[in-house]
Amino acid sequence: MRSPLKFFRSRSLRFRITLAFVASGFLLAVILSVATFFTVRSFLENQRVKASTRQTLFGVLFAREFFQQARGNTEDIVSLLQTRSGLDAMIIQGDQYLATSLSLTPSVVPKDLKRLVANERLGYQQTEIGSARELAFGAPLPAPDTALYFFYSLADIDKTMSVLLRALIVAGLAVVMISAVLALRVGGRILRPLHEVSSATQRVAEGLLETRVYAATEDEVGVLAASFNEMASAFQGMLERERRFVANVSHELRTPLSALQSASELLVTHRNDFSPSSREAVDLIADDVASLRRLVEELMEVSEVDAGKAIIRWEEVDLRALTTAVVRKLHRNAPVAGPAVVTLSDKARLERIMSNLVHNAFEHGRGNDVHVTIGEQNGTCRLAVSDGGPGIPPDALPHLFDRFYKADRSRSRDRGGFGLGLAIAFENARLLGGTIEATSPLGGPTTFTVLIPRKAAPPEETP
Amino acid sequence: MAERILLVEDDRRVRRATALTLADEGYEVLEAEDGSSGLRLLAERRPELAILDVMLPDIDGFEVCREIRKRNDLPIIFLTAKTDTVDVVVGLESGADDYLTKPFAPKELVARVRALLRRFRSEPRPVRIQLGDVEIDPEGGAVRKNGRQVSLTKTEFNLLRCLAERPNQVFSRETLLERVWGYDYLGDSRLVDVHVRRLRAKIETDAANPTVIVTVRGLGYKASSEP
Asked: How far apart are CA A330 and CA A326, in angstroms?
């Protein structure tokens, strides 16, 4: 079982804030209620004691005076006290009661009070008769072992207190509820910027580096937002510098490599003029120059996409005609099946995608059994390139479109692949509003499917 | 006699490597490292084709291209950096017949040069075509509008002829790329669009409302025999 603390910590901050608010509201309500309750009760009781004392003193004086005259006729005293002063009294001698206007037995007189009175003193004590609280006042009478007792009911105070208690409970519940509502709202307000920062972080993680958080306040949350923005800018700047570095390096390498390639290809055309070892050297140079140049081109392309500078030139493209031309340009033989689907797209980018996929299928598939299927369904164009197997390991599938990823490290270096082809194809598909999916049943043929939205032709001619 | 090619390129390595490749193909290469010496060589040596880099230290390649077009209709290929897509249109607008993005494969350049020279050498079959007020003369590609001679580049002329030989037939951009430039489907359709625009500027009465070369929405272009 999880400890309560752990449970508490695993809850959302809003939940915890609310809980803390409610708990303190509850505690406060309880403390205030208890204090109020006992203050009011002791005040009321003190008042009652004072009033009762006054009445008792009057009653005692009256009874003493009358006791002399009535010569111990206690019944008369009691009835007089009742008729003249409205006081209920009881006169006791020893344990025997002599007279009373109450339906009470002498046993209700508290022992401590009795002892006090027996010492010829006047006193009072709170007691319970039945379940009702009473104030018992006692005073000695001028006769041996004789005392006069008065009883005052505290029932009305108790009733008042129970009404007060109910009111306090209701008020306490209200306080708890109000604090809960307040906590939810205040918590929401405090946490909203936090949520914003959190979702902004998410967006940055998804690659939207220009994401910033706006904070109206300059408190801790404002500081957090500012720090976040600073971090995002720094991050963006870092990536931008890195991208620019790649772009600059590629750009600087481009021209000399281009010249190198021209020169090396010239040498290759005259390779038969060289000795066998020079011939091999020339071929090596030409191959490596060509593949270096491709790498630089691909890096340029990637950094262009990263810079968001990629321009899309929309024009009508016949997917089948394009694919057929791509296959022909690669000097390969792969059947292209499916209807002639015409859509508005970027011909150069589609060519890049298809060229990379078809090339990839021939390079990594078994044999030359490559075929392309073109189709259209519900406004989505599908171009599926399948190879002849042997499939891609499942753990490699999710990384196929990662830059510089090679499913088969040992093989692809020789083939001049850098692991950028599929990444570039994917970026281009994304630019066209589409995507590329790869499926590869174990041992079966791998199929790359390009899915791009079919767009209607523009009414005006493309410029 | 070897055909002369003017190569204007400021980067020495690229220029030399390109010149070597072209020379190896049997062309005589006139090398210039800036626009003004390029124009001088053009006047002195009368090359059959020009290859111009866009970025030149003195006059930019577009300006050189416009200068050449003022006096001569020799085929022009310009070289542009890949990222500058605007350059392509500007280059074609200034009168170039084709372009290559840098860095280019030398074989690709040789193929373009060869195709352009072949097209420019071929004499058109003598046909007389009348399209509204535009008349195509059988002799050497003279075109007259309302009897007044209009000067077209060879590529513009070939484009007009291709369309005019079959009036009212719609040609897709791809078909025109294939017929006029010798490209397959993957060619840049901007070649067609910019050349059509240039052609219209020369032969249409109102280029904004063309009546001779008409755009067929979503399909391509056609030559209209109706005035």
From this structure: 6
A272 touches chain B (CB under 8 A): no
3-class secondary-structure state, position A267: helix
Smallest CA-to-CA distance from B94 within B195, B188, B181, B173 is with: B195
Q: A329 and A258, same structural domain? A: no
How many domains does chain A fold into? 3
Contacts of B157 (CB under 8 A, 6+ apart): B124, B141, B143
The answer to whether residue A363 neighbours chain B at the CB level (below 8 Å) is no
CATH code for the domain in which residue A292 is found? 1.10.287.130
pTM over 0.80: no
- Cα A241 to its chain centre, rounded Å, is 34
Q: Are B174 and B180 in contact (CB under 8 A)?
A: no
Q: Does B83 touch chain A (CB under 8 A)?
A: yes
Q: Looking at this predicted complex, what is its ipTM?
A: 0.74
Residue A205 lies in a domain: no
- Tell whether A290 and A389 lie within a shared domain: no
What is the C-alpha separation between A286 and B116, in angstroms, rounded?
27
d(CA A26, CA A174): 10
Chain B interface includes A291 (CB < 8 A): no
Q: Which among B190, B197, B161, B162 is positioned nearest to B176, based on CA atoms?
A: B162
Q: Domain limits at A355?
A: 315-453
Is the residue at A177 inside a domain?
A: no
Query: Which residue carries 């963006």 as its tokens?
Result: A236
Looking at 1.10.10.10, 1.10.540.10, 3.10.129.10, 3.90.850.10, the CATH number of the domain B129-223 comes to 1.10.10.10
Alpha-carbon distance of A266 to B16, in angstroms, equals: 12
In terms of domains, do A274 and A395 share one? no
Q: Do B102 and A255 touch (CB under 8 A)?
A: yes
CB pairs under 8 A between A and B: 85
Instruction: From first to last of the 227 residues of chain B, give the pLDDT tens digit.
Output: 688 999 999 888 889 989 999 999 999 999 999 999 999 999 999 899 999 998 888 888 889 999 888 887 889 999 887 655 778 888 888 888 998 888 788 888 998 899 888 887 766 666 677 777 777 875 666 788 777 888 888 888 888 888 888 888 889 888 888 888 888 777 788 888 889 998 888 888 887 888 888 888 778 898 887 65
Q: Which two three-digit tokens encode residue B80?
A: 């542009």
Contacts of residue B18 in chain A, CB cutoff 8 Å?
259, 262
CATH 1.10.10.10 in chain B is located at 129-223
Q: Identify whether A430 is part of a domain.
A: yes
**Candidates A260, A269, A297; nearest CB to B24:** A269
Q: Could you tell me the two tokens for B122? A: 């071929």
Distance from CA of B139 to the nearest CA of A (A): 33
Q: Is B17 close to A322, i.e. CB distance below 8 A? A: no
Q: Is the peptide bond before A390 cis (omega within 30 degrees of 0)?
A: yes
- Is B101 touching A (CB cutoff 8 A)? no
CATH 3.40.50.2300 fits B4-121, yes or no: yes
Instruction: Closest CB to B14: pick one of A258, A304, A325.
Output: A258
